[in-house]
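User: Hi! I'm a student and our assignment asks us to look at how structure tokens line up with a sequence. Could you show me two examples?

Assistant: Happy to help. In each example below, the sequence comes first and the structure tokens follow. Example one:
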Amino acid sequence: MALTVNIYYTGENGNARKFAEEMKASGLVERIRAEEGNLRYEYFLPMDDSETVLLIDAWESEEALDFHHRSPMMEGIAALREKYRLKMRVQKFTEAK
């Protein structure tokens, strides 16, 4: 069953955007996109909220997402999230095949 996770990262003083930029510059984004089962990993900037960045993260299965969550990359993501003092709001959607 395919699933999509929307993560809203919110901070202050442009920190959410800085987080997304550092994720990309560090190579983490490309490494995540290369993981088996990843279908989409993209950041978007909401027009009406300059302090939030939306991540759309799609996976082929719950198992692929679970494997990603257990990967060493999660430590890097968590460290950057802490560095920029971000809050998260998560929405999860499943799609039957």
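Example two works the same way, sequence first and then tokens:
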Amino acid sequence: MLTSRRRNGTRLTPARLSPADVVRVGGAGLRARPLRVFLSALGISIGIAAMLAVVGISASSQEDLNRQLSALGTNLLSVGPGQTLFGDDSHLPSEVEEMIERIEPVHSATSVGSTDARVYRNQHIPSGQSGSIAVQAAKLDLLKDTGAKLASGVWLNEATHRYPATVLGSLAADRLGVVHAGPEQRVWLGGRWFTVVGILEPAPLTPELDTSALVGWPVAQERLDFDGYPTTVYTRAEEEHVTAVQEVLAATANPQNPNEVDVSRPSDALAAKQATDATLNALLLGLGGVALLVGGVGVANTMVISVLERRAEIGLRRSLGATRGQIRLQFLAESLLLSAIGGLGGVALGIGVTAAYATSQGWPSIVPVWATVGGVAATMIIGGIAGFYPAVRAARMSPTEALATS
């Protein structure tokens, strides 16, 4: 580099460092202390990885929810009996399905009805150990209207819904120890044997079916003392008219006492469940921010120590004509490079954690581009802030002071 001395009466200006020179000089300082650089970069990496993983896992979960809702539909509404003004349980009219299907945008309606029967693996199980499994009468079009699917066996038909046959929800089958449906599989239901003809897959929109043993409507009335009143009516409506249908369902289902009818949208429950994760995500983002702050402190500490250890180098460079700006730029470049290494490592680690967790949950792996770019940008900002003071301190050293204290 050219010096600032006068030569033949001409004052020479210092040569400027090119970007490549800045990177090369900054990288040389990092290569001289690999272990310290690794530990400092690790702090940055952990913070960025934590924040990116939280955003990525949340985005992956949201995408999985969106796919579920697209497959199951958001046009399912459920109607159930509420309570009277005196706090007693009310009931829906027995002809409620026909009444609801008169609403023009409604495609179909089906229902289930609760019974007082209990189901056990065999007749020797104590009556108190029912496993919280409900026995419900079901209409034949229940699967079609709710979107539930069979994991094993078949659904009730015109023949089996009149005889002792049952279809178990996924959790009910698990609690009863029934792994597959078939003629040899029986459960003790309502004081008699019922054949398990089918087992349902988990039903996200109708989780109450997961813990139910479903029997035919006629057999429930004949053998289980079922009163014939529906306890839940599932309604499918045109997507664009769901809100309008929801507003009139109560009055349609029970015109005399619409205030005694509860109407809900099962897909809203899924969305609400997703929203509850926001608190945990905020907590994890906060922890990631703390880790990032600690990483920035580590970078600042590394650069301050580097300045103290390299006073001789600073003094030599200054004596050879390096300007304060060039010294400042050198140490600032080291800090930015150190943070960039940590940031890129953190992004790679965060993407890896997101992909691994999403795969284990069966979700699509989604990492927003803005989060990736923002993570690297955050590290560069932190690197600039952390390296500013050490760079200024190094630039303020005079050549004689630096060489004298080295």
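Here is something you could point out in your write-up. The chain has two domains: 20-68+272-404, 75-266.
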